[in-house]
Amino acid sequence: QVQLVESGGGLVQAGGSLILSCAASGRAFSTYAAGWFRQAPGNEREFVAFIEWSGSNTHYADSAKGRFTISRDNAKKTMYLQMNNLKPEDTAVYYCACTRRTIPTTQSYHYDYWGQGTQVTVSS
Q1: pLDDT in tens, 76-95
Q2: What are the two backbone dihedrals, phi and then psi, of residue 100, each rounded to the nearest 5 degrees?
Q3: Buried-most residue among 3, 30, 48, 85 (CB within 10 A)?
């Protein structure tokens, strides 16, 4: 079992930055691929980024490319999402998740463990 807890959300002005953290419990986290998703009110949960267990491979949604960076520190059992040049349309609850699949995907239903989410609000 893996438990995930996100932190780092908050209110920021457009153009600002935030770093989200996802702290994991359970030894298996370091062997699982992981990702970030987000959900805005009235919208479906959408993929933001994923990272393989080793950190060697990452993938981003088009909306995140060039602005967001996903990373992980397996020794600390923590994953991060550095978000720069934030826009009002980035406003959402951000969730971290991990999957037992060897190859991560952009589909939320492939992820086995989820955090409770952290709110990110970007004002214009």
Answers
A1: 999 999 999 999 999 999 99
A2: -80, -10
A3: 48
Residue 89: burial class (beta carbons within 10 Å; 0-12, 13-18, 19+): exposed
Please state the three-class secondary structure of the chain as a single string.
Answer: CCEEEEECCEEEECCCCEEEEEEEECHHHHHCEEEEEEECCCCCCEEEEEECCCCCCEEECCCCCCCEEEEEECCCCEEEEEECCCCHHHCEEEEEEEECCCCCCCCHHHCCEECCCEEEEEEC
User: Can you tell me the mean pLDDT for 32-37?
Assistant: 96
Return all residues near 30 (Cβ < 8 A) that are at least 6 apart. Answer: 53, 74, 77
